[in-house]
């Protein structure tokens, strides 16, 4: 049994089957459905291109993430200034807005982290959860869920 030696970039690879694809130099290389042992490059998420032309200044090219970050920062500042409900509502709305931007704008720059579906789902679920929790915060909640008190009846004693 012969020992396998690691592939060297200088080695010539002889393609024996019809399923092949050219490499960077145009030589045919055998393709496989297996993932490579070492990843040399990472694909940009769909929609991860610049949100403005390349000759625009950096902040203009990344306006979607900057908009979301400014809204979240403003929400944190409002929360720190003792308006908890308004600040957390602003944070949740900023995340929901980020999900809407990810859905509607074709290129959102650094706001694109994963696939479009995963980003929309993540921003939407987290934003909705933060908004719902901000609306239910005590005292004087703006949103009351009727079955929540019955659900917690057995776990919380008065």
Q: Round the Cα radius of gyration to an integer and report it.
A: 25 Å
Shape: elongated
* Strand/helix succession: EEHHHHH
Give the end-to-end Cα distance, rounded to a whole number of Å.
Answer: 75 Å
The quaternary structure here is: single chain
The count of helical stretches stands at 5
For the biggest β-sheet, the strand order reads 1-2
Structural class: mainly alpha
Average residue-wise pLDDT: 79
State the low-pLDDT regions, or none. Answer: none
**Can you give the helix content as a percent range?**
40-55%
Number of strands: 2
The proportion of strand residues reads under 5%
What does the main sheet amount to?
2 strands, antiparallel
Key words describing this protein structure:
single chain; 158 residues; mainly alpha; two-stranded antiparallel ribbon; 2 strands; elongated
Kindly describe this structure.
The protein is mostly helical. The protein has 5 helices and 2 strands. It has helices at 58-61, 63-80, 84-104, 116-136, 146-152, and strands at 20-22, 28-30. The protein has a two-stranded antiparallel ribbon with strand order 1-2. A hairpin with a 5-residue loop joins strand 1 (20-22) and strand 2. The N and C termini lie far apart (75 Å).
